[in-house]
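Example 4.3 (complexes with small molecules)
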Amino acid sequence: MSSSLFDLTNKTAIITGGARGLGFAMSKALAAHGAKIALFDILSPVSDLSALRAEGVDVDYWKVDVTSKEDLEKAVDEVKAKWGTVDIVVCAAGVARDSPFLETSIETFEFQHKINTLGSYLTAQVAASRMDSTRGGSIIFIATLTSHQAAPAQRISAYAASKGAIRSLVPHLAMELAPLNIRVNSISPGYMMTDMVKGLEKKSVEEGKGSLVETFGKEGMLGRMGREEEVGGPVVFLASGAGGLDDIALQDQYRTSRTGNNMVFTLSWGILATGQIATLFSKDLLISPSTRSVSDVTHRIHAVASSSSVERAQEFIDAITVGNEDEKTRSRTEDVEKKRGEIKAYGSYDELVNDEEVQAIYVATPHSFHYEHALLALRAKKHVLCEKPFTINACQSKHLMSVAKANGVFLMEAMWTRFFPLVRELERMLHEEKVLGRIIDVHADFGLEFPGIEDSHRLLNPMLGGGALLDLGIYALTWALLAAHRAPENLDEDGNPVRPRVTASMLKARTGVDAHTTIALDYDKSEIAALVTTNMRVRSLPDSTARISGEKGYITIGWAPFRPESFTLHLLAPPATTGASGHQYVGTEYLPPKKIEFEIPGHGMFWEADEVARCVRDGKGESSVMGWEETIMVMEIMDEARRQGNFKYPEELEAHTPQITVNMLVVQELAHHPLISHFLRYTSTTMGRDKIYRIIQYFARFYAYYLLRQGAPKDTIVPWNSLKNNLALGRKLMRVGKNVEHVRAAAQAVEGLGKGGGDVVGKALQVGRQVGYAGYLTFDIMQYLHGAGFIQHPNIKRIADNAYKCWLTGLAFNIIHGLYKLRQISTQRAALTLSTTAAEEEKTDVKKLDRESNAASYQLLQDLLDVTIPGSGLGLLPLDDGVVGVAGVVSSILGAKTHSEGKPSVYTTTKEETWVMGVRYE
Ligand SMILES: NC(=O)C1=CN([C@@H]2O[C@H](COP(=O)(O)OP(=O)(O)OC[C@H]3O[C@@H](n4cnc5c(N)ncnc54)[C@H](OP(=O)(O)O)[C@@H]3O)[C@@H](O)[C@H]2O)C=CC1
Ligand SMILES: O=C1OC[C@@H](O)[C@H](O)[C@H]1O
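Answer. The structure with LJPVP2WV bound is encoded below.
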């Protein structure tokens, strides 16, 4: 029995040069680990294949000249037709000629290069183009030790060069084929006693050069020649992908080369929710992929979030990192526990999706939240694996897909069952091998009892998307679609499945959700009928997950519908006869049933996770195994079944549904563009709106002046003047009460001054500034009351002048403070060493001072621009409204920018002061 690490069961291997020598030896090794063997050779096999077959090996021979692409294509296609897949290719066909360099003819050179280099190249090319990227593949070139080093007993430069060329192919093909999930390696056997060497030996002895065997043996590190079967280990190792290491050198007789492109890809996960299935999924993520013979991808849980609290998230982390008690995986216990401290805990989903180190989010909340939470993650540009049912209805699913597409991220429904090796093998047997011939009838069922659950439970609660169909029926539907929908007879000319007619009925539970649902799917094109039943009251029978009947018999799938461990093939006994409809009927007697079992080394959720990792690694938006088309199909059938069963979820759940129009989508996505959403968030604050109004106010002031200068009619100018006045008045109203805040800040600054210590000059300037602003805003209130008509102040001009004077005072203190600050910074900067060898902290200090200096200059500029407003209002500066308007617009834009970036005021010297600083008045 083969170890699962090197298990090649269900894999097909092609071995060129497989009829004899190393090729044949390697074939036997691959067969011993379960592979089906296709021997390609120009020569007939040395040994009778029936002997191998008698040992249970599935083996066949194809006469192939590896220098003929046509031969290769024909043979590889035949292998695929026979066994369904091509998974492993060993390019071992080769020739060697002993020929001194100075005497080697073009023909001898070309002969070896044609078979060894071109032959391997073509074999790899033809085979790779026929490999299934979802299964992955392995190409192994057989090079030679003599392509790394000289061979003192031989003259084989042309041969070594042809094999050296093969080795050079490895990194390039590995890179190009990595997206197809195909690994590429080479093995360089040392001196092996094969037929080829025997030929050389004969020649050497005949020519009186002595025995090569002896010389070769001395050159080998073991002091002897290698035996053919000794190359079996490396080839099985590379074919199985069990290594997962980069750059492996097998030191003795072989060298293997693996490239950076074969490096393991690690996906960093964020787990959103801490319920039952999130626990199982996370535990599976922590199982070493090598336990399921996966070596190209691995997983890391970076963070977990709970919607309730950070403590809940931590509890979850503690629980998933308790070592597994399972005998088989006991060895990982210690590793898993080590991971506990590496996983972050969050008390909100927002924090999780905004963690930059998280690449993919696993959404495991109840059904009703899938749409909202997947959207949250997609908009944060995370790849998403979202639990089944994907959403409440098909429309929501389509919207998620369009958002994923717009954000360039991967999205998949976590229909984990689709990724079990059992399911992949069943699909292959049904649709490629066609073990049942044409499929005729499918019955899929999933029932489960939930005794004593409350109405609030997610299965019964309509607000949580309850009901049998969305929770359990979805699995039965998946089985039906897998067998019927994807049957080749059901595909249209473009290869797309033709939709079925849907007839459904429902029996309701006390909360109004469906307790039983029956769906009939009728496929007119392929004449397949499928019946899907589900309920949440009684467990379905052990063998009734699905029964798939075809012309040649039927298959039953065992329990559980979400995690099956076996299926049984019941084939009708021969002979075959042809029925009236053209279908093959083969009697009523059955052969003994064949039960095919599959081991699940864990809960089985890691296979879907591996798919996500591969798709993310390869830059794919959707999976080819569980693609968007399938999710939409399932959702649409469930929508239709609910429509016919008269079952709608509460409006709030269904109403999340956006009507997908291109315009809606553009608007939605625009609104979520980081720049735009930042702007919308900014302008939703009072301060943000005030800054925008201020920009418009000063622009209106400038523009009214401009129109006047242009001699525009009064009617054109009036609206701009009134815009300016209305905004000025409105903004004054918004500031009513602010004077009190400045009085308080002034009092605090005085107190700070009284305590002494610290930056006394800074504190004193602060007092002046706060007093100035407090006075200014007090006069400002009076101006508002007058402007709005609450009072008629006889001396409003004087009030306005006083306001300006106070404002100017505040600004003057600001400016002095700005200059003072700049001076302080330049003194501190001069004190720091600026040599290139300066310590890191020092360099950091310099950068900090540079930043502070920029901020102070920026603020000073705004203050100087603002001086134009009260300065001209008081007649101190001879400036017209054009200049003042422009100065006001510029200072407002600068202020808005600083504020929207969330930078604190440069004048702030106490915490308390922050809330009244950075505000630009008038
Ligand atoms: N149970 C199973 O065997 C399987 C379940 N699934 C699917 O996974 C999803 C979750 O199922 P399951 O893990 O069993 O459910 P649970 O009820 O065990 O867990 C759901 C989790 O979602 C989070 N949550 C967030 N908001 C709410 C809310 N308002 N009400 C309840 N929970 C909330 C909670 O975690 P927190 O507050 O900490 O974030 C909670 O622990 C379902 O859609 C189900 O179909 C799929 C395969 C198998
Ligand atoms: O996906 C599921 O499969 C197993 C059931 O127990 C569970 O309710 C369901 O969500």
